[in-house]
Specification:
With 213 residues, the chain is mainly α. The protein has helices at 9-27, 30-37, 41-48, 51-69, 80-97, 103-108, 116-143, 152-170, 176-190, 203-211. Helix 1 crosses helix 4, helix 3 packs across helix 4 (51-69) and helix 7 packs across helix 8 (152-170). The radius of gyration is 25 Å and the shape is elongated.
């Protein structure tokens, strides 16, 4: 008869996720994961097989968090304001976690992406974020909120680039004012120009025009 697990799987995954996020796959040793989870090494091996198995489970958990964070962008009427808020929330999460980049980006630059399963998770998660951005931008274009000449897919890729560039800015001496100004500039470039109301000719100019014709 299989022995019932005597630990909270959700808690273990969250703590493992934090350890991997802080140290990376290579940097997080089994000892670090034991300290983070409070489990013995053998318990981790029994549950996940090895460190790779635990990392895959933690990465899947992170992808679920990413999907949840995209929920506001799927709401009816979501537009540039919601996209701007997404960027600000993303940066605040990084600050709260004490990390320099999202786990997907950190993983993408590591040797572990030679693993097909790990690369597939990273690629699918990045694609999901850009698809959500693209859908909001397309709706914003249709409403006249965003520039009519925007290609939603390309604009989403641009916004994804800005998103991760902002985390680099904030960790290389950029101030919070610099970050906020960059967000304002980014959405200023996406926003449709304001239409100035056409001036109606005054009665005096209309009378003068009639007298000269």
């Amino acid at each position: 008869m299989a022995r019932t697990r005597e630990f909270d799987m959700d808690l273990v995954l969250e703590r493992s996720l934090s350890a991997f996020w802080m140290r990376g796959f290579e940097g997080a040793s089994i000892r670090d994961l034991v300290e983070a989870t409070g489990l013995k090494a053998q318990s981790l091996y029994n549950a996940f097989g090895d460190k790779r198995g635990l990392f895959l489970a933690a990465l899947a958990r992170y992808r679920a968090h990413v999907s949840e964070s995209l929920t506001p962008l799927g709401a009816p009427g979501a537009g540039l304001a919601e996209l701007s808020q997404y960027l600000e929330t993303f940066l605040s999460v990084l600050r709260a976690q004490g990390v320099s980049a999202c786990l997907l980006v950190k993983t993408a630059f590591g040797e572990q992406t030679s693993d097909p399963e790990i690369r597939a998770l990273v690629t699918a998660s990045g694609a999901a974020v850009r698809a959500a951005f693209s859908a909001v931008i397309a709706a914003s274009v249709a409403r006249g909120e965003a520039r009519a000449d925007l290609d939603p897919k390309h604009a989403a890729a641009y916004l994804f680039t800005v998103l991760h560039g902002l985390s680099a800015l904030s960790h290389t001496g950029g101030t919070s004012a610099d970050v906020q100004a960059s967000i304002v500039e980014t959405f200023g470039a996406l926003r449709a120009p304001c239409k100035r109301p056409s001036k109606r000719p005054s009665k005096r100019s209309s009378n003068r025009q009639r007298r000269t014709t």
